[in-house]
Structures are given as structure tokens and as C-alpha cells.
Amino acid sequence: MKKVLCLGAGLVARPFIHYLSEHGFHVVVASRTKSKAEKLIEGCANAEAVAFNIATDDKLLENLTTKVNLVCSLLPYTFHVKAAKVAIKHKKSFCTTSYISDEMKALENEAKNAGVILLNECGVDPGIDHMSAMQIIDHVHNNNGKIVSFTSFTGGLPSPDANNNPYGYKLSWSPRGVLLAGRNDAHFLRDGKEVKIPGADLFQNCEPMEVPGMGTFEGYPNRDSMSYIDIYNISETKTMLRGTFRNTGWCETLDKIADLGLLDIEERSLSGMTYADVMRDLTSAGEGDLKDAVAKFCNIDVNNMVISRFEWLGLFDEREIDSKVNTRLDALCTLFEEKMNYAPGERDMLIMHHEFIAEYPDKKQKITSTMIDYGIPNGDSSMSRTVALPVAIASRMILEGRINLTGVHRPIIPEIYNPILEELATLNISLEEHTSDL
Fold first, then answer.
1. Which of these, 171, 172, 410, 413, could form a disulfide with 383 (CB 3.0-4.6 Å)?
2. What sign has the CA pseudo-torsion 298, 302, 305, 311?
3. In angstroms, what is the C-alpha Rg of the chain?
């Protein structure tokens, strides 16, 4: 029986483990907290849990890697390269759902020499977005067409029936990741012009976007869209924009959170301070009314919804910050973790929406491709399924010899994306396409 090493037992690991176990592979789940791994493998015939810390257990990583056929890292992205290097050393294939970093890209020749694939960006975003986009792009190109505009937005959100807090958001992945993403610069192409937005201004650049059948969301740009012009082989395009969906109100609130300095990751002593103390410090509030001082600092009215969202979250509370917390961003994370969890039985939702303008010699068309996927009440979240199942299917294909590539890859070629999208459709994860003439 072939074996898989799953590094990490976080929010998205369960569907990965269960899919591979059900398809006859033995899965070793290695997690810093062994009890978390043990909980995830309940009901699996072919799985075991191991206590493992990627930061310190170097010998154990070598030992575990030698005993398996493939390694999948579902750890924070900063640890992927370390695990990939050990996989290459022992000639084992490697998968992740994260973006290809420069350090990962630099392993191309080593992976080729070892005869193994390092498959990255095989989750939902990045992942299903690449695969579904490339399927359409390749179809247009194969039919003598050109892509002149491409926009793609994805958001993990509460389903409408669970959308019951003032932020319109709940946690289906790491709150630190959600907040750190709000610090990224954005770079995209619109109507032939390059646009660069510094991270500090990111949330001032959101716009209302209509999703068929779902209403209006806020969309804001996501990191570097420009590199995807080459990745997707659409040098002809005049617009290339990838972004994130949120419910209305999120962008204004996060913009003010950023302005206040609450996304700061500089280590500092917050010992003995309350959340209200931090807000007083940031706004030089003194003895006056704290809400008034924050509203004035943010240049908004004290009755603005942003102030009530701050209050709901607990930013005005005279409550001491956890003594282990030493950055403002992590202090904010604590509140997100407390207030933005899904209650039992609540569903999350994943929305992905692509829009293409395609030009052919004799016509011009608009193509839309939309996925609306819901979590299973009291079961796997939509986020965990849409992130974990693509990489699980890809892992199975590698183990069964259906993917024979070597080097560093993302799922943008037909031999990878077609079978994964086909199988995802059998698991009720698919996009609906519409084409109209312009």
C-alpha cells in the first residue's frame, strides 16, 4: 500500500486525509498537536497520527519522508520549502496548495534531477481558479480566439443563512492569514494600463461586483495579477485582475483597522494593556471619549457602522490582552478567533467568478464561469473541501502514475486540470459557464 505524509492537521486537512484513505492509500498525519491529528483520522481505515513540529523535528521529518511515497504540506507556507527540500533529497513527490515562492521556484533543477514533481497552487485560490480559467483560455486559443480581458474573484464567506455578524465574515481559515493578506500590495492591468496599489491603500480600492444569483459583493485586488499574463499565456490581454470577494462593509472597516496600525506585526510589549489602552495609544485619546477619539482619528462620524463594528469586536473593551501576545495584529487575531467562528450547524460558502472577453476573427463574446459552493452542516466546510480535494486528487494521480512530470508546477496544463476538474464535478464542486455574444 502506498503511503502519503500529510504535514499539518489544520482547518483544511480532513477532506485530504479521508479522500486518500478511502482510495486505498495509507496517510500519516503529522501535527504539532497529536490529538488534533487523531481527531481528523477518526473513521479512517488507513491512517495514523504522529506528533511532529516542523520547526524543530528535523530528524523526524527525514525519517517520516523516507517511509512514504508522497509528501503534502498543509502547514503555513513558510515551512513548505523546508519540507520540499527533504522530499527531493529522498526522491519523493511533493504537493501544496500555496503560491509558488521564489525559494520554491529555485528548486526546479533539483526536483528534475531527483525525478520528482513539486506541485503547488493546487487548492481553491490558487488552484481551482487556475484550472477553470485555463480550461476556458485553452478552449478560446484552440478555436483561433484571443482573450482581451480576464477578471477573477474568489471569496470564502458565511452562507446567507449564517451571515449574522456586523463584519459579514467568519473564519474558515487562519485569521492571521486573513489579516496578513490585508497588508499586501496589488499590481494589475486594466484597459491596457498597469495599476499599482500599496498595501496601505488596498481596501480603498474595492468596488461593488455583481455575482449572478447572489447579489452584490465588494471586490478588491489580490497581490500580483501581472505575473498571470505569462502564466496563463494571454499576452494579448488588456485587462488582468485577480481579486477577493467580501460582504459589503468589510473594506471600509479593514481600511480603518489598517489606518489605526492594528495590522502591525512589529513585536512589542503589550503586557498589562487592555484593548482600550491600545486604541487610546494609537489615537492619542487621553482621558476623553474613546469612541469619539477613534472616529476623529479615522475621519468618520462616531455613528458610522465602522465604530459599531469595532465595539462589537471588543476593541473598546477594558480587557487585558493575553500575555503571550506581542504584536497588535495578533491581539486583533485573538478577537477574530473569539467572535468570528461558525456556530454548530452553520455553513460557509465559497464564491468564485471569472469574466472573460474573447475575440474571434468573426465575433466577440463574454464568457462567465461561476462556482457557488456550500459547506456541509456539521460536516466539512466548503473552504476545507475546495482547498483539500484538488490536492488530494492530484496526489492520487501522482501516486497512480497519471502525472509523470518533474520539477516545479502549478495545475495549468490539460493533463493535470482536466481530470481534477472532472473528478471535482463528481464531488459536486463545479463552475457554471455562460457565453453571450457582444
1. 172
2. positive
3. 23
From 52, 47, 113, 112, select the one nearest 83 (Cα to Cα): 52
Prediction pTM value: 0.92
Q: Distance from first CA to last CA of the chain, Å, rounded?
A: 54
321 in Cβ contact with 270 (< 8 Å): yes
Q: What whole-number distance in Å separates Cα of residue 26 and Cα of residue 374?
A: 29
201 is annotated as an active-site residue: no
Query: In 181-319, which ranges are continuous DSSP H helix?
Result: 227-231, 250-260, 275-283, 290-298, 305-313
The active-site residue, picked from 57, 58, 125, 330, is: 125
CA 427 vs. chain centroid, Å, equals: 20
Q: Which domains are present in the chain?
A: 3-119 (3.40.50.720), 128-251+343-380+431-437 (3.30.360.10), 253-339 (1.10.1870.10)
Q: Report residue 353: phi and psi, to 5°.
A: -140, 115
* pLDDT tens digits for range 306-347: 999 999 999 999 999 999 999 999 999 999 999 999 999 999
Grid cell locating 202: 488596498
Q: Does residue 216 sit in helix, strand or coil?
A: strand
